[in-house]
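Box S1 | Example of a co-folding query
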Amino acid sequence: MTPTGASMHQELVFRSVVCSIAVWCGALPHSRSLWHCMNDSSDNLIEIRDLDYSRGSLRIFRGLNVDIRRGEVTAVMGPSGTGKTTLLRLITRQLLPDAGTILIDGVDITKLNQKELYKMRRRFGMLFQNGALLTDLSVFENVAFPLREHTRLSNRLIRHIVLTKLHAVGLRGAADMMPRQLSGGMARRVALARAMVMDPEILIYDEPFVGLDPISMGVIVRLVRRMNDALGISSILVSHDVQELSTVADRSYLISDGKVAASGSPKELSSQSSDLVKQFMHGMADGPVAFHFKAPDYEEQLLGRDND
Ligand SMILES: Nc1ncnc2c1ncn2[C@@H]1O[C@H](COP(=O)(O)OP(=O)(O)O)[C@@H](O)[C@H]1O
Ligand SMILES: [Mg+2]
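Box S1 (continued) | Returned holo structure for adenosine-5'-diphosphate
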């Protein structure tokens, strides 16, 4: 099979699973096409407006505004500790903001009740940095886990869906392996298969490239793009890996000091002249983001006088 043939085949398999889930299982989320018909009014799937969030005395966001466009890969970048993971937690309402709104399809998620929240969360698939596979379960069972937990599908259908998802990430042949037998890149791909097994509408990746060798990283980058386009979903990709993001994102946000410091296509961002954007995009040690975390005076501290 030619590469084009192979990818076409994978797309067809994706589509067939999406359709089969929608048709066979009322317990699973809405049919995407139906959802799209109902919500064509806006290009923005998620709108974050005037978001404030603090942890104790630490002000993480102050007036943050971000749009996640339907069908696109949106990158969220920023120095370590800037609040990227916190933002994902706010979007999935694991945290509540102090002020501001987070609209998903025009609905303010900060106001949902438990039942609505549960329904909304099922629209998300998440891939976390460490993959977090269950070590006592095989690759197959790891991917099957959300289906067994949240649906009453037959074993035959679960097998069909799991093998299709594993095939999509190139690991159908690893179905019977245990997590300890996988390389870092393979584990990340299994976690990706699991993240999309419930046919999510929005895939969220938190630092998916960390710790991967360049080849595995390239594979994940291409998978992110292919999942997004073949499944017609929207993706949010959090990373500090500017080079990788520029090859996959449609639109990027650079967050610093609690706000959006810059946004646009990767090309637009790299041509911006602000010192912060330049520092971040080119990985420079000197610039508005200080190398040193806030600390007492060095001499005073060395001489032990800072507590006097
Ligand atoms: N559970 C927590 N309790 C207190 N502070 C936290 C907690 N989680 C994160 N933080 C702080 O919030 C800030 C943002 O963290 P995070 O969202 O993890 O940053 P990023 O993902 O951009 O590296 C950091 O300064 C971090 O120390
Ligand atoms: Mg983080």
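Residues 55, 58, 60, 78, 80-86 surround adenosine-5'-diphosphate (ligand 1) (CB under 6 Å). The chain is about 40% helix and 20% strand.
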